């Protein structure tokens, strides 16, 4: 099994990707703090390049490659944010990117990936179709596969968001992320437990896509049921690396309803005037729906992304 990344890997990643990403702001809202009874610090990865934390892992992976490895380009399968991030990182390094995308990916994400210069192949919205399409692309091009989350370089890159958060805000009682494939959660957990060991690391997930919760309960990776959630970034299953880190470092995973995700998303739009996508709202939904006790606590939440289909907002249906 591939070695799990460490805090040293995350710190190296931070130096490597510094020229290629934004150091995103940490924002708070008095109104939201009053609603939940705690003090929340939002790490705004919705304001990151490509509109998501994925820019970090992709940049770390692409700029970790040797010249020989990079010469044939990079390839992946992704529903959107990782695809855009990899395409941008490849463009920044001056190499080609090949992306296999499910045909039902949000249009805003398809447009972004194309805009960064990737060569896109569309496939049916199943993991089997994505993997088959990717295999064909790699066979044809010789490109290096960069997994969306089950890759130590990706995990280390994603952990740099928590590195910045902990540098800016001290004495956090809890740090929260949404969890899908687990790249952000595992990278964050490594950073949190190394730098602030008494801080609780909690992930949040839709009830309608609760495979990470079930996996942690059962002690093995559970297959996802057909995910029926508006949080399109959280429809993927855990990987072997991300699950190993989650088992080691994550204190709990909580699940939330679809309505609570919509409510939390709308609240952040209205109160803080920032655009987030449904996946980003999942941790705040857990706080606001009483799934955890945050009274008089300091909570860091990583807002994972802000790529939203403006013609398909969940509260306008």
CATH class of the largest domain: Alpha Beta
CATH architecture of the largest domain: 3-Layer(aba) Sandwich
Radius of gyration using CA atoms only: 18 Å
Largest sheet: 6 strands, mixed
Task: Please count the beta strands (DSSP E, at least 2 residues each).
Answer: 10
**Shape, please?**
globular
Q: What is the arithmetic mean of pLDDT?
A: 93
Total helical elements = 14
Please indicate the percent range of residues in DSSP E strands (runs of 2 or more). Answer: 15-25%
Q: In angstroms, what separates the terminal alpha carbons?
A: 45 Å
Query: By helix and strand content, what is the structural category?
Result: alpha/beta
The overall number of domains is 2
């Amino acid at each position: 099994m591939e070695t799990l990344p460490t805090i040293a890997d995350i710190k190296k990643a931070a130096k490597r990707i510094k020229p290629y990403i934004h150091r995103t702001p940490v924002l708070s809202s008095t109104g939201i703090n009053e609603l939940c009874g705690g003090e929340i610090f939002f790490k705004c990865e919705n304001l990151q390049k490509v509109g998501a934390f994925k820019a970090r892992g992709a940049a770390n992976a692409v700029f970790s490659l040797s010249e020989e490895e990079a010469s044939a380009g990079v390839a992946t399968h992704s529903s959107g944010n990782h695809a855009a991030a990899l395409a941008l990182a490849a463009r920044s390094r001056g190499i080609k990117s090949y992306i296999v995308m499910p045909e039902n990916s949000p249009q805003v994400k398809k447009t972004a990936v194309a805009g960064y210069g990737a060569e896109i192949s569309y496939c049916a919205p199943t993991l089997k179709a994505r993997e088959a399409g990717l295999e064909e692309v790699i066979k044809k091009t010789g490109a290096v596969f960069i997994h969306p989350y089950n890759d130590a370089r990706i995990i280390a890159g994603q952990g740099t968001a928590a590195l910045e958060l902990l540098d800016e805000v001290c004495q956090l009682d809890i740090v929260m992320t949404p969890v899908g494939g687990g790249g952000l959660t595992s990278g964050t957990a490594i950073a949190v437990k190394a730098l602030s060991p008494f801080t609780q690391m909690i992930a949040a997930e839709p009830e309608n896509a609760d495979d990470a919760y079930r996996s942690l309960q059962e002690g093995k990776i559970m297959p996802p049921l057909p995910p029926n959630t508006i949080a399109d970034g959280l429809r993927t299953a855990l990987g072997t690396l991300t699950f190993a880190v989650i088992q080691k470092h994550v204190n709990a995973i909580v699940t939330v309803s679809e309505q609570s995700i919509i409510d939390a998303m709308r609240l952040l739009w209205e109160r803080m005037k920032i655009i987030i996508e449904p996946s980003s709202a999942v941790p705040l939904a857990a706080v606001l729906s009483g799934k955890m006790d945050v009274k008089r606590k300091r909570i860091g939440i990583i807002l994972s992304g802000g790529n939203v289909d403006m013609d398909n907002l969940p509260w306008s249906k």
